[in-house]
Amino acid sequence: KTDISWWHAMSGANAEVVAKIAADFNASQSDYEVKPVFKGTYPETLNAGIAAFRAGQAPDIIQVFDVGTGVMMGAQGAIKPVAEVLKEGGYSFDKSQYLAGIVGYYSTPAGEMLSFPYNSSSPVLYYNKDIFQKAGLNPDQPPKTWAETWAAARKIKESGAATCGYTSTWLTWIHTENFAAWNNVSWATNENGLAGTPELKIDSPLFVKHFQELADLAKEGVFVYGGRTSEAKQNFTSGECGILTESSGGLGDIVKSGINYGIGQLPYDETAASAPQNTTPGGASLWVMAGKSDEVYKGVAAFFNYLSQTPVQQYLHEQSGYLPVTIAAYEATKASGFYEKNPAREVPILQMSGKAPTENSKGVRAPNLPQLRDIQNEEYEKMLSGQQDAATALKNAATRGNAAIKDAVGG
Ligand SMILES: O=P(O)(O)OC[C@H](O)CO
Fold first, then answer.
1. What is the 64 CA–ligand 1 centroid distance (Å)?
2. How many CB atoms lie within 10 A of CB 60?
3. Which of 27, 37, 114, 378 is the most buried (most CB within 10 A)?
4. Its family (predicted)?
5. Which residue segments constitute the domains of the chain, with CATH numbers given?
6. Beta-bridge mates of residue 104
7. Could you read off the pLDDT of 145-202 as tens digits, one per residue?
8. CA-to-CA separations, 86 to 92, 116, 297, 309, 324, in angstroms, rounded
9. Using CA atoms, how far apart are residues 167 and 178, in angstroms rounded to an integer?
């Protein structure tokens, strides 16, 4: 048997999905053995992959989060395009079979798919129905706008229904990148970097308003900060916070926690003229590293072909909350009556693909996006701890980010 190593960043319920998919693939044939290895959070996994590549010890497959896409695209010679791997493996690869917004994000401008969209997500609002009930809020009506969310969060805290009204994972992905897309405001010039080198616009008035609202809520103790990636999920599953904004892919752990939860769409800012627009795909994709044997590539092709099968996609979608990446799997999920029984589970797909994207909502791209997020996180954390206001935090994040982009492109 040929071993295929797969480095990933999935923990909790999503790690169980990885283990099951790999085990099922391994049992379905006798030539290849996919071996998943957990490498930490998304940023940690990407850093581990870069270090391993430099040492000549890269894995065969590595899971890289959405914002690492620009880094991987720039790593010429380090990766082998997925479209090529599939074709050489003898699989007829047809891009039109995948959801357009997702496949577009992981393709070159010329349309070649570079990585396999294993887990695509969209941020949603989860709320604790028992806490809503206790606070005198309607447990069947999640807040739709940020203003409604803040009001509900304050009521939760003031009524004593919970010690924390609201928390959120990923202030970068949800409150910055998706905030821009969903409210149809610019994150950066050049179509958010997809059409050329971006200049960040995240210090414009709508961002300042939104982040000042978050800073005020933090000061009141209504908003509790969990951390830079998915940490805040625990503040919600533990019952500490009544409302959480988090990836649709956070669903597995929320289900496992046993809390009485509901799902609403990502809130939008009611003052933004054309909101809600559309969200952009988050999550991660699988990259194939260069310089491996033909046998390994054949195995990777067989594995990715397996991953695109409708029953596998349906399992992944229903179990984890990540989106089905093929049109066939989405149609099969609809036809099975799954969304009729669980209407909220279609929310992430509808909000991602409900409207044709504008130049503000196709996604974001920069050669050093993980670094830009680190800079944003530093400034946001200083703001949340009361050391600076939102206008200063965003001005600093934009200025420092733009300098880092210049460095990265060698300007
Ligand atoms: O939690 P995930 O896997 O949906 O990922 C969220 C963000 O897109 C990561 O950058």
1. 10
2. 23
3. 114
4. Belongs to the bacterial solute-binding protein 1 family.
5. 2-121+281-335 (3.40.190.10), 123-278+362-408 (3.40.190.10)
6. none
7. 999 999 999 999 999 999 999 999 999 999 999 999 999 999 999 999 999 999 999 9
8. 7, 10, 8, 14, 19
9. 16
